[in-house]
Known about the structure:
The chain has eleven helices and 20 strands. By secondary structure, it is of the alpha+beta class.
Amino acid sequence: MFNKKSVDIAVLGAGPVGLTAAHVLADRGMDFVLLERAPRCHTRSYALGLHPDTLELLDTLGIAEAVLERAMPLRRTTIFDSETNRQEAAIDYSSLPVKYPHLTLISQNELEDVLVKTLARKKHLPMWKNRVRCIESGEDAVHFTVDRLTEGMTGYAVAHMEEEIDKVLEYKANYLIAADGHKSMARQAAGIAFPEAGPSRDYAFFEIQTNVKLLTEMRMMIDGNKTHIYWPLGNGRCRFSFQMPEGFAKKSSFNKDNEWVDPKAQQTSELSDLHLDHLLHLHAPWFIGSSKDVKWRVMVHFETRLAESFGNRRIWLAGDAAHMAPPAGMLSMNVGMLEAADLAEKLSSETSDAGRAFRLDAYNLDRMDEWRGLLDIDQGIHGLDPSADWLIEHRSNLIGNLPASGQILNDVYQQLHLIQTAAA
């Protein structure tokens, strides 16, 4: 049975970026719908923390306190030369002139749970298991089809559950906020190219539960052109991400699924306990935990991409739909949440198409300029004095891997005796 629906703003994707947009739209009393293909929140992701300015954004939305109840503050990042095991630089977040002078470590499933529950208190919820397809952007509106999915039993010899279409809905929206990930159907429908903006990288991720005392800092271990990362997660848990040789991970392995464990990953030699022991000995000799305590392991291919535009006519992008970056800086999620709030605010502050178009053009220019800086496309990072020579030598290791953006990134550069100049 077909049903027709009309809405001012449709938000695609109920990850942190889409949920942030929904919070702003709910606070502004806007007419919107939040659609998500998945049946629930994610249970595992590669981003695991919030930048200080992202937490400040959530504070304005009335969410920061609920996030902090589940999170662990992290006030220090160190940068090590993996070959000599010597510290070359450090970032002290506690000295930053901001309301929340720390990184806020929280898993994506916990963050999404907070965002969903606080959104419910604002009388809105994601529409789970709603698959969007056939997006068409016209001069006056965006039209798309939504399959409302349900599970049905199938099979004769062995019964199993399969998704079935319960209802087909035809939507018309004045504007569409695309927070539907790096494979964004909305971006493709808008005809926006998504070219590479830097090198791709392959990583081996290991999450470890241990009873040893863990370092309470993020540690970047630089080994030539490779960057390895250690994160403490609290409650005796930590995560290592080791950058591997090119071709280590298949491109299709970049998959933010909803499962806790990748069964195939547990059986690959590249992710074996023996290989992990070798990686720890080589790059983290200070770690005294055991590879026998690994709770999660996966290989991932990360690409660096930047959309040629953040929008076209009635479709506008935020988060992974517009950019992909190295994992350590958690830029796509954090900056994406700020983008979503900005985009929702711009659409809420005007009712006329002309007024919205003007503000959306400004959004595109601001975001493109910001990301050219975040990915240092114009190679504007320089040292302020000889103490930064080693960091400049490893400039490519830092780009996208420093957990900061905006003015806070400039403050971090200052701590590292670096400066980023604008392109001429």
